[in-house]
Amino acid sequence: MNRSDAIKSIAAQASQGELTFPTNLDAALKIQRTLDDPDCHIETAAKLVLTEPLLAARTVAIANSVAYNRSGDQITNVRTAVMRLGFRTMQSLAASLVVRQFSSKITDPALRAKAAKLWEHTAHVAALAHVIARRVTHLDPETAMFAAIVHEVGGFYLLSRAEQFPGLLDSDPDDWVDNGEADIGRAVLQKLAVPDAVMSAVESLWYGFLALPPETLGDTLLLANDLAPVASPLHQRAGATSKESASTIDYAVGEGTMQSILEESADEVKSLTSALLA
């Protein structure tokens, strides 16, 4: 089966709600749903986080990152980390666990390498989106980070199905929206109950063009994606600015400039990226 036929087959299944998720995804989704509950208690959240070692380690790491630890006081336990981060950030971290679970059952070394590179790209975009939202577009940074974490979920889903569909990833990676991949990504996002505003922002990566200066959540994602030092191994956004030119774009932002903000936030971005990759 060639790539086009494979994509059409998966897209047809997705359009009917027939999505094949890893069995270990259930636990991650349970954590996400619990954190979404406004009545969830801090003790309940901490205990749930502790059931997933990867999430527990990442929670403590994020809480100790420059972005969330302005005082420099190091945290050594999950409960205190959850209190520092708050449930909004924890929802993003739970989403990161959900996204990474898609690649947990991949056995092919080449596909595993692609999945690892895709998560590295995602982590960079998430850290940049957090800073850009807070310092440039003045949007909720937690929403921006969440949108960035899920922006490649369709790609992770395709990687999780690639061993069942030989040839799925054989052709040019630049035609992401041409043969149904966007439909697959949209179906996965809907299955994961991603809010409409975040869905629209992610769709901007498939069809949109970056406005300068950036203003919307979609612009925030587009700019973070273009500035990320690690590109997606699956596709390039249509019309994307090259990394070299994106990194040299400068314009006034309040009393500073885009470049000055990126320079001032370099440690924050590095710390947050490292914590997400931990």
Automatic annotation (TrEMBL):
Record's Pfam families? HDOD
InterPro entries, from UniProt? HD/PDEase_dom, HDOD, RNase_Y/CdgJ
- Where does the HDOD domain lie? 21-208
Protein name per the record = HDOD domain-containing protein
Q: Which organism is it from?
A: Undibacterium arcticum
Q: Which CDD domains match?
A: HDc (cd00077)
